[in-house]
Amino acid sequence: MSFPEPNNPHLAGVAVACSEGHFSGGRTSTKIRTMLLGAICVCVLLGILAAGLWPFHAPRNEVSWLSGGNGLFFGKHGSIVSAGSFAANRSPSDSSCSIEIWLEPGRADSSSSILAFYLPASRIVPLALRQSLGDLKLERRSPKVAKINANKIYVNDVFSRLKLVFVTISSGETGTAFYVNGALVKKSATFRLSGEDLTGQIIIGNAPATTDSWSGKVKGLAIYDRELPPAEVSQDYANWTAGWTTSGRPDTAKSEGVVARYLFDEGKGSIINNQIDSATCLLIPERFFILHEQFLERPWDEFRTGWHYWKDVGINVAGFIPLGFFFRAYFWAVGRAKRATWLTIALGFAVSLTIEVLQAFLPTRDSGMTDVITNTFGTALGAIVCVWSIKRNCFARAGVSLVFPLEKRESQFRS
To answer: Model-level pTM greater than 0.85?
Structure first.
């Protein structure tokens, strides 16, 4: 658009001066707004990095000895692991084995891993004992079992009272029996355990490959390669709760078929001795750990049907919307309007991927591709909202101007 030249040279000079002052002021104010927008982008980026990588290191292993008696207390991030692996002493077809564990949960609303057997070579968890709110959940993950539903069984209201409970799981040819404080509470003829299910390293207080911390007290653990009859289950409960013999040690005459027995009576140190085999003593590391940390776990492996999974998906999408919104606005403001949207989405993907790679080295975080997908989607949503806001002059209505100086606008339009 052209303007007629003024006839009066003095007026012409004034007009030129005013015009130069106007554009100079416009350039200055636009530069300030761009710098402010850049500062907001930096703050958003730092906030996302801090949230994704906190606490930036492996925290202290929150496992401590109980002061009022035998046992260990497991805090928010605490776990222990056996020094060696348990081997199957009998044929895989022999479905005779038993577990006794004396414990007290710290929370009634927890769904987490209490104890798990783990085979490092094949990365398989043959057996996992879990707390599912107030219930006990037993998972058998054998590669020979095709149906996933057949691998899980629940025992109701075992932990609902938040008291010490002595749990016995005894499996034989007729099925698996579950006892609480020496009394039979459930029996399943279809759910059976075999000797190979109780093989590998033991992890107590967490899962082998992901952060699934359990909080509470553990006061005793025993593993058998045979089925325990009801009378012996009742007697063992009495022995454990009474402190075994007057010396605090179990009767050696009652050690038939015992693979491991941990009394948790050391009271100090970082080792819990196995009274049967010292090669499989339990170790208390100084730092919280994941035995086999997942690296960019596949989305279909991460998928869960519970509310917690979908809540995390929503948080990951919403958390990256500000990054998409403000970086899209910044790239537009600095003159990269043509490719600003794609550049913003690529940035969101790169930031998310960097976080997930680094999370593989942090035991309190999980590294997976689901977060990369949801974070990138959140970035795209933020960028789309920014474009929509610019087209409808939402910034101007809110009193914020993202208009360029005239020469920058003209150069963009010409290109």
So the answer is: no
